[in-house]
Amino acid sequence: MSNIRRQSIISSVLIYMGFAFGAINTYLFARNNFFTTDQFGLTRVILIAGNLFNSFACLALPSVIYKFAPYYKGNLKDKDNDLLSVALVLAFIGFVMTTLVGFIFEPLVIKKFSDKSALFVQYYFLVFPYLFFYLFFNILEAYAWSVKETVISNFLREAGNRISVTILIVLFIVCGFSFSLFIKIFSCLWGISFLGLFFYLMKVGKLHFTFKISRVTKRYWKKMALLMGFVYAGLVITTLSASLDTFTIASYWGIGSVAIYDVSNYISNIISVPQKSVVAISTSYLSEAWRNKDLATIQRIYSRSSINLLLISIFLFTLIWLNYDTVMDILPLNPVYREGKMVVLLFGFKFIVDMGTGVNSQIIGTSTYWRFEFTCGVILLSLIAPLNIVLVKHLGIIGAGYSNLIAYTIYNAIRIVFLWKKFNLQPFTIKTVYALVISLVCYFICYFLFHNMHSWFSLFLTSGVYVALFGAAALYFNLSPDILPVWQTMKKRLGIKQ
Length: 498
Description:
One of its GO terms (cellular component) is plasma membrane. By secondary structure, this protein is mainly α.
């Protein structure tokens, strides 16, 4: 657990560095004088469409790598490990097939989006270079996770790409080249992260290619194909569920509304950064624990991930919500972006639910019951699709917030009940209740003290008081087994004596 904690902290720090650049990017996109809301919205729609197409093209290969990497490692020398080579070949086949289908369905895209989102129709073809580089980065990232090289891959995903976007935006502003050139370069930026990870893995000696089919592949290919089939369907369904809100907003309200929605979504997504780190680190450990039938380790990872991610999510959400109006007042943003405040609230609650239930998806996905993830995905899509269509049509972007909160709450509840019934695994303790109560108390103290103040000084004052109150309470009640070790390490690094 100490290794998971250490790598999670390092990854989170690096990823938050990326979020700092992401915040700069969002600020520059949202200013009045650099990009229109439609231009900003186009970058978001290309991103979401690329992610959606990636779910088709990747053929669920990352899940295969997570699940079967320990078998390759335990039975083959590195030079004979063909897992990555096979995955890359299959990914290329998936890319070609998805691209062909994408061009076949171009008339449907024109029909659905030409009225409200004409700019997306004009640059629809740029989804495919975005898909190419993003797809192969994902395959390489999954392999990096399997060999426990998660820090650099997390950095390149969350920070490297955003730094590239920042540089591109600055060049666009300073050099004054056309938006057409800007969006074309934007669609290829994942190539930088892919090459960075490729050369890093090569440098540390973790990159091996062979096109000779190994005995492990020959032995397990049927099980791997079965896993691919179920996970692939589930992944497509899950990604559709996550993408549907953006496309529904673009269709009914235009890509300008997508930009407003994305700013709110980005703000709330700050909460989820530590979840990505914990998932990245814990996946390989869970896979090994299932292989060894070590339920005690799985329960320990489950419960610790739940309380740690709950504490982090409510801490970050409360910090954001306390300062939301202040930030909107002091930053020179286009006033239309204030319309997303309720979206931040609803997505904040969604992330608290999703993170507070721990790594339940990864536990199921690495177990022999991984097929159940497909069932969960079907349930999620069956909930979120009609909710999005109805609520977005009548409520606008706030409707997407409600639909996500409702659907993901039910989605996580089903997975919790499944793990409890099948393996007697459950993530909660009495400290889960303490964490929720403490967060509410700290919030109301800070709200009543500072809610009428809107300045840079009040922002730092409110944040400082809340951090002090929440941190002191978490330490006093020892809400997580990882709090004291982290605190001791911080004191040691800062030179604070006992």
